[in-house]
Amino acid sequence: MKCPYCGSVCADDALYCPNCKQPLPSAHATDGKEAQPRREKRTPAQRAAFAALIVAFVLALCIGAYKLVGWIQNYQLTRLYTRGAYAPKLSAVQMDDLRQGHAIIFFGKDGDQIYLPEMDRSLSISGGVARMEVADSDWFGLNVSDVEYADITLSPMLITEKGRKTELPPFNFQIDVPESPLSVTSPAADRITVVTGIYPLELNVVPGSTVFVNGEDVTASVDRSGLLSTYVGVKPIGDNVITLIVRTPRHREFRKELVIFRQHYDIELELDTTVSDLSTARTMAVTGTTEPGASISVDTDHIEESLSVDMQTGRFSFIARFTSYGANTVRFRASKPGKEDAVISFNVNYKPSLAEMRDRAWAMDYAQLRVMFENWRYQSFACKGPVIDSRLPGDGRGQGRAPAGDPGQRKQRHRADPRPPVPGLRLCGRPVHVPERILPAARGPVSGCERVVMGIGIRELGSRE
19 versus 394: which is more confidently predicted? Predict the structure, then answer.
């Protein structure tokens, strides 16, 4: 190396110039700090490796950020579709063919779709809801004798209007093996009392079901819609137990028992099945059969000249007469020396036509209410004016109200109800005094539109004509 002061050539490890005795540059570096090593230039390969390292680092950072954002989105999506507003719901429903099922309900934005790969079915979201009903039996095979339930897992996929697909959290639920559907139309209750030797049995099952009535296979009598209409014998022994068994494919066997009671009498007495419990006329023919030699007497209102008895065959008939709207009791008995009388009593619901009710309607005379209230029972009344309220027996709220000042006027026919007085009926008109013994809650004078209970159950009342 050369001395920067005098230019003499010095050894590389010399600290001072041997000629001018001045410190060489290496000596200055050692006074304060070590001399900086000389940087060597990087080769192209090194530069490329360094750039690749930087790119890999940035790429790893981006991938990590992407995964973090995806994890957050998946967490929010899972929370929304498992515990949030879009969580699917399962509700029990009855299918049109009587089978039990469940409705699977998904939520989302209108226009999107829910695709279920297990069922290869897409559901469109409308009104924020996508709904699908599936019968419970569709989740099972034909033989369910050793199966109690099925664990179902659906993997819904959300498809937006733009075609973006998002896998939603799995939807898990459990379905029990359903019982074979059975709907009994007749009789209307599981236990009834009858006075006839046969009774109509009507029931509905799923088409293709096997049906047994008291151990007898009656499947051949079931029509294509699943309706079975037949008759069962009813003996005068008290309780007659009717056992129904239904076996539907993919369902559990269902068993149901009906009890039809028929009183035992010393004298045979039977009412014909053609005798109805509903009549639109004031009279109705009653026919039946009793023991030959027995006489028939009618305890309730009837046309005396109509009673006839065939002493050889026991056939009898008479014409019953109804005195009030609604339920009317018909009671008659068979008598024979040395035997206890056999008595049959049943109710007939008398529902006359509107024309007949109009012809027999009383004028609405409020002044007579306080002195003739007992005679109002079982009668119909002609009222004219706007309807101000409508009530049903046992309901304390009005079913409808005409707007105030409605100029519309119309005549209405209202019939009395034989049931107990109904609190809350309203009547617009002149003040009426209701005796305290009718209803303690309606004491004293009752002015227009106040509470009036007359024991007649008028369903709609207007202002006085």
Answer: 19
Residue 243, both tokens: 């056992």
Selection from 145, 148, 129, 146 nearest residue 91 by Cα: 129
Containing 72, the helix (H) or strand (E) segment is helix 44-82
Question: Do residues 372 and 457 share a domain?
Answer: yes
Question: In this structure, are 78 and 107 located in the same domain?
Answer: no
Last residue of a domain, one of 350, 370, 396: 350
Q: In what order do the strands lie in the sheet with 100-107?
A: 89-94, 100-107, 129-135
pLDDT digits 0-9 by tens, 230-241: 988 888 888 999
Domain span at residue 227?
183-260
- For 402-439, write each residue's pLDDT tens digit: 444 444 433 343 444 443 433 333 344 333 333 333 33
The total number of structural domains in the chain stands at 6
Burial of 211 by CB count in 10 Å (0-12 exposed, 13-18 middle, 19+ buried)?
buried
pTM of the entire predicted model: 0.57
Query: Omega before 187 cis (within 30°)?
Result: yes
Whether residues 386 and 344 share a domain: the answer is: no
Average confidence (pLDDT) over 316-325: 89
Q: Per residue in 373-383, pLDDT tens? A: 666 666 666 77
Q: What dihedral angle (degrees, nearest 10) is formed by the CA atoms of 18, 24, 27, 32?
A: 150
Provide the pLDDT for residue 168: 85
Compute the distance between CA of residue 23 and CA of residue 156 in angstroms, rounded to an integer: 85
